Structures are given as C-alpha cells and as structure tokens.
Amino acid sequence: MAGDYYQILGISRDASKEEIKRAYRRLARKYHPDVNKEAGAEERFKEINRAYEVLSEPETRSRYDRFGEAGVASGAGGVGFDYGDIGGFADIFETIFSGFGGMGSGTTSRRRSGPVRGDDLRLDLKLEFREAVFGGEKQIRIPHLESCQVCEGTGAKPGTGAHTCNTCNGSGQVRRATRTPFGSFAQVSVCPTCNGTGEVIEEKCEACGGAGRKQETKKLKITIPPGVDNGTRLRVSSEGDAGVRGGTPGDLYVYLFVESDREFTREGINIKSTITISYLQAILGCRLEVNTVDGKEELTIPSGTQPDTVLTLENKGVPKLGNSVSRGDHLITIKVGIPTKINAEERELLEKLAKIKGEHTGKGGIEGFLGGLFHK
C-alpha cells in the first residue's frame, strides 16, 4: 500500500478517533464504486478503507506509528481487509459505526478464540562498510513477547482453566442497535469482558498476569550475507512475538544501514577511492601499494598518466548479493600533485628539461611548464 495512511485520510498524526471516523465517512461516500464510476475510484476506496482499518484501532495505529507498513502488514498483526468484504453502499455506514461485523440480525458473529499468529517485529541494524561487503555473523538483542512457560501460553494459573463468557455467551462479540442519521444499524463490537476470546480465565497465571505471554529480551546470532547494502531487509523466521492461544510466532525483519567509510565509497557492486601521486610519478610511471577492502594491493601507474584517470583493480569490489563468487571492481581515481614550491636544484633541472623540450619558461615560470606537460 503506497502512501502515508494519515495523508490518505487527510488528517494530522495526532488526530482523535472521532476525527479519523469523520474523515473516513466523508471519503468513503465520495469514492465508493457504487456512486463513483471514475477510473481509479475503486483503488482509492480500498486505500481509504485500509487506512481507516489501521488508524481506527489503537493497537494497530501504535504499531503503524512505530514501524510503518511493516508493523501492520498481513501476518504482522494487522487485520486483513478487502473490498470484497463490503457489500452495497449502505454497508459503509456499518463499517463507520462498528468497524467489523454484519448489518442486521442475520450476520454471523465472529469468534476469536482460535489461535492467533504473533506480530512481526522490525529491527534496524548498523553495519560497518567492510561488514556489509564481506558479511558475517552479528549478535543482536531483540525485545519480544515469548509464550509464558508457567501456564504454557494459556494465561490460566496451573491447575485451573477457563469458562464460557457470560456476557457474550462465547461468541466474543456483543451487539446493540444504534440510531444514526442514516437509520438504525446493528453495532457489533468486541466483548469487553473476554476481550473477544469467548472465554474467561478462572484464575490468571501469576507469572504473566493472564496474558499468556511475557516481554523478554533475547540474544540472537544472525548471518549477514556478503554484498548487502543500505535498505537490505533480512527475514529471521519465527523470531517475532509469540502467538496467542497456540498461534505461530511472527517473524523478525532486520533492516540494514551501512556506515560510510573514510576512504572508500560504493557504487552498486563497485568500490571507488582516490589516490594522489607526484607529477614525476605521473610522467615516468610507477608501481604503488594501494588500500583495498582486501588489504594492500599493487597498482601499476602507466607513464604519462593524466589527472583524474581512473584505473581498475578487477574483482576487488563488492560480492554480488546472492552470488558471492562474483565481485565488482575497485575503481581508483588518480590525482596529480603539482608542487607550489621547488628548491634551486629542482628548478635548475626542470629548466634544463624545459630547454630540451623547447618550452618557454619565462613569465609563466616553471609551473607553466609543468602544467603544459599534462596537456600535451
């Protein structure tokens, strides 16, 4: 889903629940496909419903504010929603007043006492430049919800159990009629007594307070593959929050951010750096040891090398992500240092060379001659 949910509804990030509902009602009327036949209206209507679905519930809104779309994506604790769940135009208004559930007495109530998958989690991890190039193992600490070992995730004190909720008779929902400017509607909401589970625990587990899960900080070792870059996302299966009532755990998503290096920069799978040589080395050529991510490597400077020439060390770049055998190149830009001062002996020798070359070294001085060497 592209776009910011607050922008989709046209509200501020500190909007109240009532402001969210009013914005949704206004936009739902405008873009519902039953009344708006323009191209793109149905897609816009889906965006509006998705934004309302996330922002109207405090828990999902909180996750969205913290983690963005990753915190409420399908399987990340967000509630799936589809245009097909909405019937005719009148059904919009039930969504406005009740969030979910059918209109009238003929709608089947939804029971939420089954297993629920745990939330996915996100962790941002910084890597040094060379760690991103070559990969390796990193130890991380991640706070998440783990299933309570004392009650085995049931939330009930060992030796006790749960009974059917008397408020909702085990349905997990309560229904009441609501009068609105558009007529009378049945409002279905989560049962406040059992919180939608349909059951009430007789005695809560003392270790987890009846939640069935506890907040714990876990140490993990994750493998960073060679060649990762800024924004690379790694998925660590089953290391998110524990599920509820025997549900499977969510996943952990690790987003990587690479710190800059003082000497090297990266362009795709190529590494770039710059070295400075003397004008004599540029004229005569030489062999130099240069720094690479693999260590010292010998680089041949051809005679007559011009300033800003780029020389290549093949296969000394970044391994290709997913195929570490294939690597990019190291591209080295050559800068030539022209001295601002020379001693008498150097001047004498250079002036002799200038005469041999037939170069004029009067008013411009020897610096003009040196500059001329690099533009021949």
TrEMBL record:
Residues 4-68 form the J domain. A zinc finger (CR-type) spans 135-217. GO terms for biological process: DNA replication; protein refolding; response to heat. Keywords: Chaperone, Cytoplasm, DNA replication, Metal-binding, Repeat, Stress response, Zinc, Zinc-finger. One of its GO terms (molecular function) is ATP binding. It comes from the Bacteria. Participates actively in the response to hyperosmotic and heat shock by preventing the aggregation of stress-denatured proteins and by disaggregating proteins, also in an autonomous, DnaK-independent fashion. Unfolded proteins bind initially to DnaJ; upon interaction with the DnaJ-bound protein, DnaK hydrolyzes its bound ATP, resulting in the formation of a stable complex. GrpE releases ADP from DnaK; ATP binding to DnaK triggers the release of the substrate protein, thus completing the reaction cycle. The J domain is necessary and sufficient to stimulate DnaK ATPase activity. Zinc center 1 plays an important role in the autonomous, DnaK-independent chaperone activity of DnaJ. Zinc center 2 is essential for interaction with DnaK and for DnaJ activity. This is Chaperone protein DnaJ. It comes from Stanieria cyanosphaera (strain ATCC 29371 / PCC 7437).
